[in-house]
Design goal:
The chain is an alpha/beta fold. The protein contains seven helices and seven strands. The chain has helices spanning 2-5, 20-27, 32-44, 65-75, 100-108, 141-154, 189-195; strands at residues 8-14, 49-56, 78-83, 114-115, 125-128, 135-139, 177-181. β5 and β6 form a beta hairpin. It is globular and about 45 Å long.
Length: 196
């Protein structure tokens, strides 16, 4: 891929559903297959770090929990479930909130979740499933809050996993270029989905 040859090494990809109908409703485009092909092309291109972020919304994509776990295994990626949080214009509703603890408990009914080693300021708690590829992670609201507070104290630049923009940062010879491709619900769409 041209981006890989240009030095891009880190991909954060937001993908909130594997269902074509849901995908088209939240993005307004019937392009789920294109996104999945892009993920596989990026994997085959040898990106050393590739993470798939999923905002977990009760009544919308919580029925895909095990499908996402299988996706992490078949595609050999780190898939991270993010707690649904209120942001300006995202149509947040408490009815859609699904805690990481509940998600983890539901996965644990079928899989053994073995904790990975985490950096102290890691934004996610990640787990491996013995005998399967990939990793499953959980991003808590409290962890996000701590991450930004810690980064602020350390005067660090931030790469926010929730931005809807492509973000590239190149810093000298040891640069790590980051890019995010976001497919997030249009303003108010989540509220309509969870109220149906």
């Amino acid at each position: 891929l041209p981006l890989r040859r240009a030095g891009l090494s880190y991909l954060n990809i937001s993908l909130d559903t594997l269902n074509p109908r849901k995908f088209e409703e939240i993005t307004r485009f019937p392009l789920l297959d294109n996104v999945l092909q892009g993920i596989r092309a990026a994997r085959d291109a040898g990106f050393p770090v590739m993470k798939i972020n999923v905002v977990a919304i009760r009544g919308f994509n919580d029925d895909e929990l095990f499908g996402f776990a299988d996706f992490a295994h078949t595609e050999n990626v780190e898939l991270r479930f993010i707690e649904y949080m209120p942001f300006h214009g995202n149509g947040w509703s408490p009815n859609g909130f699904l805690s990481s603890d509940e998600l983890k408990a539901r996965l644990a009914e079928r899989f053994e979740l073995r904790p990975c080693n985490h950096a102290p300021a890691a934004a996610a708690k990640t787990f491996e499933i013995p005998g399967r590829r990939g990793k499953i992670g959980f991003i808590y609201q409290s962890l996000i809050s701590h991450f930004f507070q810690q980064a602020h104290r350390n005067n660090r630049d931030l790469h926010c996993p929730f931005t809807q923009q492509i973000d590239q940062r190149i810093r000298g010879e040891s640069a790590k270029t980051q890019m995010q491709i976001a497919f997030r619900p249009q303003p108010g769409i989540a509220q309509r989905l969870v109220s149906q």
